[in-house]
Amino acid sequence: MANIPHILLIYTGGTIGMTKDYETGALKAFDFDKLLKYIPELKHLNCTIESESFKNPIDSSNMNPEYWVDITEIIERRYEDFDGFVVLHGSDTMSYTASAVSFMFENLSKPVIFTGSQLPIGDLRTDAKENMITSIEIASAQKNGKPIVSEVCLYFEYKLYRANRTTKINAEHFEAFSSPNYPPLAESGVHLKFNEQVLLKSRRSKSIRIRKRLENNIALLKLFPGITENVVKSILEIEGLKGVVLETYGSGNAPTDKWFIDLLSTALKKGVKIVDVTQCAGGSVILGQYETSVKLQKIGLISGKDITTEAALVKLMYLLGEEIPRRKFKSIFEKPLRGEMT
Ligand code: ASP
Is 279:249 a contact under the CB 8 Å cutoff? Predict the structure, then answer.
């Protein structure tokens, strides 16, 4: 008989495990043991489940790189003992955390599935049960004794996505996430159907490496018509700034004003890494396609191609933390490392 998969459930906080504070009426995180009591169905799944919780579960608005390291350390410590991992996390910043974790694990060969919910698990109309139960099923899914999924994913409202391709698009619909530039890895209906040809290949033959140095002296600068020289200058001249994700228009276009190009060019010369990503919900940066991106390409902006802003930010933190030689940085950034860009 095949071995029954062993799954570790990691609870970080988020709506899924929240209750209303009697005094303020606001939602706040509560104890994980209580959370499990709401889902007796877990006992009927074809796997064994253990759980580990943050000592003080958080609303994901309080997430930060130190917590990302905590999550990877829990998985690292228990990596050999489990077949798959399900991380319960608030939806607000789930795409950031899950993208970060995808970069922090190199040669992952087991599933790490992030999920959460829009309504607390104790709510009658909750979406938490389906999200959690199916995530556990996905983390347990095996073919020929090997996990079907061996990457960091995000499961929400019947769809499994590559985590670093996702973005939160809705604050109230159950369908809270989308993956604009990459198809779902699996869909859950009457059957759980994996789209096997779009999954990352398992790196089982290589040993896992975990990268925990993340450089967060970076900034996100979103362009808008009328943005002033003063604003752009203040950001690009921040003391100790190492990198910027620049959200441009359409396929990577920006104003051609001399002051703007000069400011970018000075920052680049000082060694600040600048990544061009699009403000559009989908599609790709193509530097040089329009006259309004020719100069950006010439001065050496990094093309974020079809990466999400969330993944661009954490990829920048990760690669800056790796202290890659200056001349190699751009070409490494422009390559897909964990399937985050095409
Ligand atoms: N504010 C909550 C959080 O991100 C929302 C949620 O869980 O969906 O922690």
Answer: yes
Q: With a threshold of 0.85, does the pTM exceed it?
A: yes
- List pocket residues of ligand 1, CB cut-off 6 Å: 13-15, 59-61, 90-92, 116, 118
Task: Say how many Å lie between the CA of residue 124 and the centre of ligand 1.
Answer: 18
Q: How far is CA 4 from the centre of its chain?
A: 29
For position 36, what pLDDT does the model report? 67
Average per-residue pLDDT for the chain: 94
Report the residue among 61, 123, 131, 168 best suited for mutation to probe ligand 1: largest number of ligand atoms under 8 A from its CB.
61
Instruction: List Cα–Cα distances, 265 to 193, 236, 277, 299, in angstroms.
Output: 48, 10, 17, 6
User: Is 256 a known active-site residue?
Assistant: no
Please determine, for residue 283, whether its predicted confidence score (pLDDT) is greater than 70: yes
